[in-house]
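One chain shown below:
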Amino acid sequence: MRKWVLPDFVEDVLPPEAARMEQTRRALLDTFAAAGYQLVNPPLIEHLDALLTGTGQDLDHNTFKLIDPLSGKLLGVRPDITPQVARIDATYHGAADADAERRYCYAGEVLRTQASVGTSRALTQVGAELFGAATVAGDVEIVKLMISSAKAAGAAPLLLDCGHVGVFKALAQHFELSPQATQAADAALAAKSTSALAEIKSLSVEARASLEALTTLFGPAKMVLQRARAALPRNAAITAALDQLDAIAAAITEAGAQCSLDLADLPGLDYHTGLVFVAYLQNTTQVVARGGRYDGVGEAFTQGNGRARPATGFSFVDLRALTEVTRDV
């Protein structure tokens, strides 16, 4: 009898693990629903340009592509659900409620061309997105919802490691960095490499000092914020970003989780516009959820009117891994 072999980094989920995953999924969705988040279920495939429009282009390398035999058009298998929710928000509401806050949640399969270390390429992603909330109150709502839903699923206590891309963007604007210098500085900060910053010859002494300071600004929230206010230039945008992080850190603590900050952590610089965070199970390296603010992600879907919707959200990126975490705690 032939032995069937699945593709690399793709696995079956068998009993009783599949039942545990369903229980976890239900606990998450029930928590979202209780908070007023409405369930949406976008399709597994879409026209490729819709999946990769605007900031979604960052997902291009992780997207499986195929030809639609009915239309001959190029389709993509979704590697992430958030851009699809942005499309739904932008296209199914009229001008009368264009600025209203709307809350969505989802649970569905995603498929990626590449697997992160220790993960599958076929994942179940569960998340929540808040559109139309432009202030820090929206970010506070999202982090609190992430913490409460994780607790409902059994993943607690949590540590949230937070950053804010607005700090770096404000520094780049303050010192008038070129696009090339900005990109090089971003790469240097990702490696926390002061030597790489030193190789960017166009940086002024003041700019290099401020960027080097970012590489040291990580750790407990209160300490980092105090040091950041002393080390970074007096700039309205930087002050606003630090004030937002202060409010978010307080909300995280109030919700029963720990908060650390890392001002050099800049994932998806072209995608995120404010808060970014990763949630870990305390005292482990196990990632539970990722999230942040991504204002403007739905702009390309607003039929050319250029309206960028404020947006913030998070996802439990691997329901199977989350279920394993909750079994072990």
